[in-house]
Amino acid sequence: QLKNAHKYPELKTSSTRKALKILSTKALMGQEHSAFVLETYDFFKKIEACLRLSDMKSVNTFPEKMDNHHALVRAMAYTGDKAAQLFLEDFRKRRESVHTIFTNSLA
């Protein structure tokens, strides 16, 4: 947003979703990357909402060690013997992928 806002004033928005869509329509980020980043943004917002509900306060972090019965793992619909491990792997992969997309697309 900040890098390209002088060329595209419509990027000056408080809506992350809107800004990501604009980056795609202006060809500043590929459509596949934009779709993935939007999907991941929703995934992260769901994590945030689940944490807020379970702790009844604003929360920005979650424990790196959790068991398969942790409230967040269950709320995110991960099940089975390796639910916590799968959740953490998915989280880390998404985080790293988004970082790579932003570094390559907007650096």
Number of helices: 4
Portion of residues in beta strands equals under 5%
Order of helices and strands: HHHH
Poorly predicted tracts of residues = none
| Separation, N- and C-terminal Cα atoms | 11 Å
Structural class: mainly alpha
Shape, principal axes of CA atoms: elongated
* Main beta sheet strand tally, sense and closure: none
Overall pLDDT, averaged? 85
Proportion in helices: 55-70%
Q: How many whole angstroms does the radius of gyration measure? A: 16 Å
Write out key terms for the chains shown:
single chain, 107 residues, mainly alpha, 4 helices
Mind explaining what this structure looks like?
- With 107 residues, the chain is mainly alpha-helical.
- It is built from 4 helices and no strands.
- The chain has helices at 16-25, 31-55, 71-75, 83-106.
- It is elongated, with a radius of gyration of 16 Å.
- The model has no long low-confidence stretch (mean pLDDT 85).
